[in-house]
Amino acid sequence: MWAPLWGAFRARYLLPLATGPERSLDTELAEVSRLPVEAFTALTLEALISKNRTSGEPPQDPAGALRRLRLISLRRYDLGLRLIDDAARFRDELLGFLAAFDAALFDKEWRRVRAEVNADARARQRQLRLHGVAAAFDGIGTASDDPPRVIVDKLDHATARLDECTPCILVPSVHGDPHMVVKHVPGYPVVVQYPAMQNAATVSVGQVQRRMAVLADPTRLLICRNILRRPAATAELAARLGMTSPQVSRHLRQLREAGLVLTHREGTAVYYRLNTEAIGRLGPDLLVGLHH
Known about the structure:
Blueprint lengths: L24 H9 L3 H13 L12 H11 L1 H12 L1 H45 L1 H4 L5 E4 L2 E4 L16 E6 L7 E3 L6 E6 L9 H11 L2 H11 L3 E2 H8 L3 H13 L3 E6 L2 E6 L1 H7 L1 H8 L1
Parallel strand pairs: 3-5
Antiparallel strand pairs: 1-2, 4-5, 6-8, 7-8
């Protein structure tokens, strides 16, 4: 029933509402319960409609919100009706569900993944302390120094200015891969929820385009098929394909730079094998076709 609040858009109050040291789930739920009813209603309608309110824009008109929700889905429309009818009760039921879910499943799962999440957080804190903001966003966004900014690759375009009044909270997740959530709601910290380093399988759109361009070459596809089942060194591949070693080396370099092949050394020889995980993420049909 509550799934629309935890979809791709995500209700703002389901992510940290304030900066500070790690807090318990009970503390965070208490923060949600202390939100003014009007603020809770506005944040919930924004999540249901999947539209952020910009700075200075008035909260969504309930009647207009219901008209939009009816067009989106009956499930969201029903939630909107319940919210507008009695927002306080709606919030109590939602918080009760989250507390029950914690007791049934979340607490156990959090104990399992907590060390991994904390390790990612400590690594980024260290990068921030030693090398600045750009390093802390490594793997999350593209940083530039002039002007200083971080660009996160998302479908919707928006700009958020970070300062003492609007800080940014990075939230690592071991279950979100490959998705990244960016929340920028006026009056609250900007939040970026991203796949933790050890689980991140995400690549930028540009990286996907580069990989596809590399694989558009028939010779490189043939090389991929040859090293899929059995790793090979450059000289062996050249003999198999009737090519010179320099020719094969050039193709392997492009495959390696695109992250499509992996290497290991045995003595003086370097062996190449296909990165099937990266290929599989481009598309299962591609991987199946290479197996044939």
